[in-house]
Amino acid sequence: MKSINKRHITLMAFFLLLGCQGEQKSVKISYQVYGKLMEIMQHNQLQARVNLNDLQLGKNSYGLGAMEGLQGEILISQGEVITSVANPDSILVQNSNAFGAALLVTAEVESWQEVEINESVDLKSLESVIEFQAETSNLNANDVIPFKIEANPKSLNWHIINASLAEEQNHQAYKESGRAGILRSQKVEIIGFYSKNHQGVFTHHGSFLHLHFITADGSLMGHVDDLQIDGNWKIYLPKAPQP
Fold first, then answer.
1. What 3-state DSSP class applies to 18?
2. DSSP secondary structure string, 56-112?
3. Which of left, alpha, beta for 19 (phi over 0: left; psi -120 to 50: alpha)?
4. pLDDT given for residue 60 in this prediction
5. pLDDT lower than 50: segments of the chain
6. 0.90 exceeded by the pTM?
7. What is the C-alpha separation between 149 and 212, in angstroms, rounded?
8. What CATH number belongs to 30-238?
9. What are phi and psi of 71, to 5 degrees?
10. Residue 85 and residue 43 in contact, taking contact as beta carbons nearer than 8 Å
11. Domain limits, the chain
12. Does residue 184 sit in helix, strand or coil?
């Protein structure tokens, strides 16, 4: 009996050790969502769901969203809040957290793992790239996955929303009343969120992605509507903490 008990104890310790090692390698992502796209688009609910001043943002904080009243776009990188507002004759990009957000998704990422990609992608095929890389990087492709991209896209279609200038109260009118354009072969950083389970929440129906970009010189920031990346580029995914 004693030898059996010892064997059981040894086996239990072995499997517990394996379990602990597995937990150390897994990537657990802390994220928050404020507001829902469906409420904005279907019910015209543009009020603030959270005040940026109330958030405890640090160097590991990343996020994106839309300002209260759909006055402009939001990007958060390393805890720095950047807003982009489209006026009739200019675009104002600045650092500020003195406002509310009608929609916001944030995540805490302690460290990133860099993956070099030599593959052409558009917005739709980017979903497959992220899912594949997640499966090889101890990430659960069914979870929310924040990511970063550094690239010089062949083309990047963007918009900056501004509901205050719209003549009608609908999402298309809000987009058209802001500013839109196409960047070509210009270096950008993209902050994005991938999820299969948040369509109508922070991704549009039919998409698993929501992306905002900022140019290398910081002069332009906005929402990514479409993109085409050719050649070499880099994607950064959350990295598992070291044991």
1. helix
2. ---TTEEEEEEEGGG-SEEEEETTEEEEEEEETTEEEEEE---SEEEEEEEEE-S-E
3. alpha
4. 97
5. 1-24
6. no
7. 10
8. 3.30.1330.80
9. -80, -15
10. no
11. 30-238
12. coil
